[in-house]
Amino acid sequence: PSVGMGSSIHSMIAEAPMNHGGSSYSTEGYAGDDLRSYENQETGRDQFDTIDTNPVKQVKEDPVSTFSIDVDTASYAFVRRQINYGVLPQENAVRIEEMINYFDYDYVVPEDRARPFQPTVAVFPTPWNPDSKLLHIGIKGYDIVPEEKPGSNLVFLIDVSGSMDDQDKLPLLRNSFRLLVNSLDEEDTVAIVVYAGAAGTVLEPTSVRDKGKILAAIDQMQAGGSTAGGEGIQKAYDLAEANFKKDGVNRIILATDGDFNVGIYDDEELKSYIDRKRKSGIFLSVLGFGQGNYNDALMQKLAQNGNGNASYIDNLNEARKVLVEEASSTLFTIARDVKLQIEFNPKLIAEYRLIGYESRMLKREDFNNDKVDAGDIGSGHTVTAIYEIIPVGSKGRLVDDLRYDSKEKEEVGSELSDSEYAFLKIRYKLPDTENSELITTPVNKENEYAQLDQVPTDVRFAASVAAFGQVLRGGTYTDQFTYDDIIKLAESTVGNDKFGYRHEFLGLVRLAKAIE
Length: 516
Prior knowledge:
The protein has helices spanning 7-15, 35-42, 74-85, 96-100, 170-183, 211-219, 229-242, 267-278, 296-305, 316-325, 327-331, 457-472, 483-491, 501-515, and strands spanning 18-20, 23-25, 57-58, 64-68, 120-126, 129-140, 152-159, 189-196, 198-207, 249-256, 283-289, 310-313, 333-344, 349-354, 375-378, 382-391, 420-429, 437-444. It is α+β, with helices and mostly antiparallel strands. Strand 1 and strand 2 form a beta hairpin.
């Protein structure tokens, strides 16, 4: 897919806003209507880390796959924005796991907070490859009931530098934080630090009982100056520490386009600082705004080091989703350092590849090492991982056997070898502990569906999103699977689409087809 395109598509979309699932998504009021911002987006000055797609691996040589979970959703929202502007996103902006995890899935909800996950697994035919199967792994975090929610000590760290002076940045940011404040409990506290050239505290920790004072401080923020991001972070942590809630949520919410250029401007120094502060119990989440100089690469690193989420806010509806509808997931951590490890049975599976999670891969030995950091899961969060697997004997194998392989073939000495595709392990820490717990789940033939139309709706929808992400990234493994094929697969999986997100996804696929 290409990044650039002619102006005709952009004009067509601007004149005909899309409507999916009862929600209107148009370019009206976006910075894209301003020629300067549109040109910034066209020149590709937004910064993303390079993604090297996960390779195909042979089970007999490398049977174990280990990775950290990821509940971020920034990639999907950014991809949506680009497509709604009439351009396909650059490939490195497409993180497939974040696109899949943008959506909620009806997995089993655990009843015990001490055991916060109950995996859902399924094996079924791959929609884009008749010679392989997909292994779908889904988990949903324990959902905290309102009476169990701890008090929150929040510090809003807000970028008011000159680069934020666009309609889709500071004005949208102000409205987004108003939504969050209106959803908080009276016992919660909010402080606000702004940075632009120099950092300053515009609101000391204030109870939400005095909501008017908090909202007034938000409304008064104006853009101007350079960006002292590092200095702002230091002030924000100072305020969070001064108002620390021992048994509550202590979190900094950084809102920016990622343009740090004054203060702690060295990325590694900044990451190390946030990592040290995380160990004191203060976490950092990141909200990204705007485009043209959007530094996704830095914001991803900050969120990962701060035990927080990274989200991208492209419109007020997305702000409502992240900060109101999913507030519990965003604020209340129910498990830390969550790692998944799966061992494939060489008697049944010849090859596999993990779709997405390229920046979250871990070494095999990292799984049992509690000193190795991994992703966190909030209340009610869903996490999905999909492997494409090639059965033994399939003509779809991509890797030849070694001609001079002198290693003796090892048979799986267990009666399970004929019925068990793989063995899944999940390791996690409860929020107030440093020692991890383990959950294990076998993936058996009884988890397999012979026909695609027999597969649960949620599982098929996740496969359609995975296919879309792969096609946007160049379609290395999706062969001739087209946008029309994705639409056909997704159309039958919309289900109970309360907020219209799945209908909107269908609209994006149709737009991408028109753009290409």
